[in-house]
Amino acid sequence: MAGRLVTLLTIVVICMCNDSVLTQPSKPNIVMILLDDVGWNDVGWNNKHIKTPTLTKLANDGLILNQSYTQPVCSPSRASLMTGRYPHNVYMDDSTPLGRDAAEGLDLGLELLPQKLKKAGYSTHATGKWHLGFCDWKYTPTERGFDSFYGHYLASNDYYTHKSGRGLDLWFNRQSVKDKDGVYDTNLWSDRAVDVIENHDVTNPLFLYVAYNAAHSPYQAPQDVINSYPPIADKDRRTLAAMMSVVDEGVANITKALEKKNMMNNTLLVLLSDNGGVPSAGNNWPLRGRKGGFYEGGIRTPGFVYGGLLRRKGVVAQGLMHLSDWAPTLLTIAGVDISDETFDGSDQTRVVLDGGASTRTDIIHYLASSSPGGVIRSGDWKLIIGKSRQVGWDEDPFDNPTPTKGSSKDRRQAGQGRPATGGDRIQLYNIKEDPTEKSNLASQYPSIVRRLRSKLITAHKTKTAVPEVVTTTAGHPPIFKGVWSPGWCVGGSNGEAATLVNTDPVVG
Ligand SMILES: *[C@@H]1O[C@H](CO)[C@@H](O)[C@H](O)[C@H]1NC(C)=O
Ligand SMILES: *[C@@H]1O[C@H](CO)[C@@H](O)[C@H](O)[C@H]1NC(C)=O
Ligand SMILES: *[C@@H]1O[C@H](CO)[C@@H](O)[C@H](O)[C@H]1NC(C)=O
């Protein structure tokens, strides 16, 4: 396999285009598209009601990743993707997003995937959502390995005003962008991605990170796209479907741009979600649970790979993967020697390019504050120790527009779950036999519980402490001329907390 990879990486494609000789770089281009809060049943290849013809075609012509795992919320997932580590090993909680008022960010002692790719000769560009810290400029994308960034730092922004609360949050590198009021953000990120591709000097390899805000709340989409869906009682579900259709058009534009520039043959395009859906706008059917929790619906998310690099196409890859695998995998594909690197993930080239077997058997999904609390997957088994929300299973309002089981609000509440009154403290599921987690087998298989529990205990011994975080109004928009802006903390490294600074407002 190593021999084949080397051959692949040293091929230099020369083509005659418009009378000029374009030399394709020997290192492949990587286009990483990350969706937000898009659950198992929110994509066209899993749900016929969701109109994403381009995504469905790319998934079916590429490789569908059937066991692609994430963390249950935005920031920890993004941290894993960028570092190749579990959040609990990089000073973060596995299930808590960064707050708007918190002086914190992804630890500055870490070298991120774009920094490593940049060292390997890549042009690196990011567009869309960041959500890995912004109180110090050092936390922001252009100081963490990206040549350019067009997007926003926070979560839950308005798709048209680009505001979080009353403050603007739209940036092009170090400049706030004030002239895009009223333009739907999925169009902004797609257009930016196309622009990067069109202006890309193909003698360098490209790493393009497109982190769509869709389909996170607030649920907003162009009215004509919403109208193209059948009216259903659940207004948010219908809007979310429309949000996915606009993403689909954006990805179509991106793939067309790659093809037009003759880059697709030498590109690995990856599409993932950062965590599961939020019922009832989002939908994780048939999986159990939701965003924020550790049942499969919160962490097993839709994904595929596509492009000229694939050695097998049109199949479903069953190999177990976690977000922390992407850094080692992509660096390997980029020809970077990772033998001296520390990752929790591993090189999954065989899953991603061949649809082959996984190099991992275990995923530590979660470590609670005290041992042995947590969630672990090992082989086909999954053990949950600790208080877990007693959440159930979604039904899709598109399939069942007039639900018999209560109102849309009831369903939403059922999906959101209630505190675990009566929820079992120890739960064991066989994910292969029972992917929807219906039968807790803990009492039948005590030796498996013991074996997985001891793995959790071992992981607890080396997890990193989460620094004490200061919450403040120091970064609020009124202090920075109406913009959510960096400049009010000094970021921390190697587990130190960020500290507040007294700064003069800098943003105009
Ligand atoms: C994906 O995995 C699920 C659960 O393990 C399984 O039921 C399903 O058949 C798989 N899908 C495909 C297309 O292989
Ligand atoms: C896709 O490209 C077309 C043509 O340039 C443009 O009108 C449309 O807004 C783009 N769609 C998205 C979602 O960016
Ligand atoms: C990709 O390569 C194949 C085989 O060499 C060729 O037929 C095809 O036209 C190429 N496509 C693009 C978009 O360059």
Topology (SSEs and partners):
Blueprint: H1 2-10, E1 14-17, E2 20-23, E3 29-35, H2 53-61, E4 63-65, E5 68-69, H3 74-83, H4 113-119, E6 123-129, E7 148-152, E8 163-164, E9 167-168, E10 171-172, E11 175-176, H5 185-198, E12 206-211, H6 223-227, H7 235-260, E13 267-273, H8 296-299, E14 304-306, E15 315-317, E16 321-322, H9 326-333, H10 349-354, E17 362-367, E18 374-378, E19 381-385, H11 408-416, E20 426-430, H12 446-462, E21 489-490, E22 499-500
Parallel strand pairs: 3-12, 3-13, 4-15, 5-16, 6-7, 6-12
Antiparallel strand pairs: 1-2, 4-14, 7-10, 8-9, 10-11, 13-14, 17-18, 18-19, 19-20, 21-22
The structure holds 2-acetamido-2-deoxy-beta-D-glucopyranose (3 copies).
Residues 66, 316, 435 line the site of one 2-acetamido-2-deoxy-beta-D-glucopyranose.
Question: If you compute it from the alpha carbons, what radius of gyration comes out, rounded to the nearest whole angstrom?
Answer: 22 Å
- How many DSSP-defined strands? 22
The distinct ligands, each listed once, are: 2-acetamido-2-deoxy-beta-D-glucopyranose
Q: Can you tell me the CATH class of the largest domain?
A: Alpha Beta
CATH architecture annotation of the largest domain: 3-Layer(aba) Sandwich
Give me the side-by-side strand order of the main sheet.
Answer: 11-10-7-6-12-3-13-14-4-15
Number of domains: 2
Number of helices: 12
User: Mean pLDDT score, rounded?
Assistant: 91
Ends apart, CA distance between termini = 54 Å
- General shape: globular
* CATH fold label of the largest domain: Alkaline Phosphatase, subunit A
CATH superfamily of the largest domain: Alkaline Phosphatase, subunit A
Helix content: 10-25%
Portion in strands: 15-25%
Report low-confidence residues grouped into runs of 5 or more.
Answer: 5-21, 413-422
Q: Briefly note the structural class of the backbone.
A: alpha/beta
Largest sheet: 10 strands, mixed
